[in-house]
Amino acid sequence: MVRIQRRKLLASCLCMTATVFLMVTLQVVVELGKFERKKLKDSNVQDGHRDVEGEPKHLKPFPEKEALALAGRPKVDAGSYPIVLWWSPLTGETGRLGQCGADACFFTINRTFQHHPMTKAFLFYGTDFNIDSLPLPRKVHHDWALFHEESPKNNYKLFHKPVITLFNHTATFSRYSDLPLTTQYLEGVDVLKSLRYLVPLQSKNNLRQKLAPLVYVQSDCDPPSDRDSYVRELMAYIEVDSYGECLQNRDLPQQLKNPASMDADAFYRVIAQYKFILAFENAVCDDYITEKFWRPLKLGVVPVYYGSPTISDWLPSNRSAILVSEFSHPRELASFIRRLDYDDGLYETYVEWKLKGEISNQRLLTALREREWGVQDINQDNYIDTFECMVCRRVWANSRLQEQGLPPKQWKADVSHLHCPEPTLFTFSSPASPALRGRSLRELWLPSFQQSKKEAQALRWLVDRNQNFSSEEFWALVFKD
């Protein structure tokens, strides 16, 4: 009897186990089916092949909370939102519903959306902007937006009126662009006031036994600003420690020779030992100000600056940098630096603002306070996200105007949104000088700039024609007599 009961119990256990196994197997199959269907739908959205039943009469705004919820859903119907297409594959995103306040747009780099009825704007990254492929023909409701924070030497065509005025929206280093990026290399006020890397003046005076008063660190040689010619001449009148590949006369520690180490703590410590640093930009443009200027201010080193003609508008205080433009010749600049090097009281007037933590420039303070993006700050949007949202919000603003029967607002860039003068060589430099033989690159920037004017005019004519064109057509126009 006991044996029979044991057999019944064993049989019951086996049945229960089999039942559980079947249920688990069935659930796995169901979930796999859902996953495959989800992958198919997602790929349809990303590939731009989702069926579109027709162009919506109006865009559909939704509350902010709903936008957040939609952003988290795997299924996104791109045809329900304005499509903003990155023509330059800067973000690498094949499809994302981005929330911009109470509005949302579908952002993508997928060019199959070019002719989608809900595509409203095309975003271009300046360095990648070229004539090989443009979204033509351009429809009346297609806005073009330019993001360009880099040096003009990467794409001089953009800096001429015929091309910059092709764009409706801009984010450039110019204070006059729609989204100014002038302070893109400055984290905030706190890093300027910080004394973390500051080396006391007495210690710097002691270090002068083995270090020059000036330091220069550049590996991009002979750029449009012709900075190496100036520094070479300056070296004839004052000692300069040059660590980069340009005019190198001193070596960095092996671990700091990689360009990626330029923002390393150990590199900062090396530079912070000096009293002055030659902070020369690679191009001379209004408001084009890079880390070459902000870094020494953060480290407590006085920048000897050459670059933006508008730099005085961005100084932390009236006496925080030495401006090369105020000296007629490197000889005079060298004399002034030697004077500061030997006069502690005079030198300290250039770092007093930092020692006291006082920034008197209200323009700089306002720009940092009011900018909508952050630098190396996970609590703030970066400037690319902010640029995307600026365009998205403007698209929605025009949609709402049209719903009210009003004409859409016309945004258009002008020459102030991106301006750089013609490159020039320093007058004390001569291509025939023995010291400059083989330095042909510096002599090419002026003809390159002049040709870029012709390229800009040719490109504008072809874009205004509003038809696709070949590179052969473009270059034929550029070199037309």
From TrEMBL:
Metabolic or biological pathway: Protein modification; protein glycosylation
Uppermost EC category: transferase
Protein keywords: Endoplasmic reticulum, Glycoprotein, Glycosyltransferase, Membrane, Signal-anchor, Transferase, Transmembrane, Transmembrane helix
Intracellular or extracellular location(s): Endoplasmic reticulum membrane
Chain ranges of the Fucosyltransferase N-terminal domain: 83-181
GO cellular component entries: endoplasmic reticulum membrane; Golgi membrane; nucleoplasm
Molecular function terms from GO: alpha-(1->3)-fucosyltransferase activity; peptide-O-fucosyltransferase activity
Superkingdom in the source lineage: Eukaryota
Chief location: endoplasmic reticulum
Membrane topology label: Single-pass type II membrane protein
Biological process terms in GO annotation: cerebral cortex radially oriented cell migration; neuroblast migration; neuronal stem cell division; neuronal stem cell population maintenance; positive regulation of protein secretion
Residues in the signal sequence: none
Domain Fucosyltransferase C-terminal stretches: 209-363
Any matching Pfam family: Glyco_tran_10_N
EC numbers: 2.4.1.-
Catalytic activity field: L-seryl-[protein] + GDP-beta-L-fucose = 3-O-(alpha-L-fucosyl)-L-seryl-[protein] + GDP + H(+); L-threonyl-[protein] + GDP-beta-L-fucose = 3-O-(alpha-L-fucosyl)-L-threonyl-[protein] + GDP + H(+)
InterPro entries: Alpha-1_3-FUT_met (IPR017176), Glyco_tran_10_C (IPR055270), Glyco_tran_10_N (IPR031481), Glyco_trans_10 (IPR001503), GT10-like_C_sf (IPR038577)
Family, per entry: Belongs to the glycosyltransferase 10 family.
PANTHER family registered for this protein in UniProt: ALPHA- 1,3 -FUCOSYLTRANSFERASE, ALPHA-(1,3)-FUCOSYLTRANSFERASE 10
Task performed by this protein: Protein O-fucosyltransferase that specifically catalyzes O-fucosylation of serine or threonine residues in EMI domains of target proteins, such as MMRN1, MMRN2 and EMID1. Attaches fucose through an O-glycosidic linkage. O-fucosylation of EMI domain-containing proteins may be required for facilitating protein folding and secretion. May also show alpha-(1,3)-fucosyltransferase activity toward the innermost N-acetyl glucosamine (GlcNAc) residue in biantennary N-glycan acceptors. However, this was tested with a library of synthetic substrates and this activity is unsure in vivo.
Full protein name: GDP-fucose protein O-fucosyltransferase
Originating species: Mus caroli
Gene from which the chain derives: Fut10
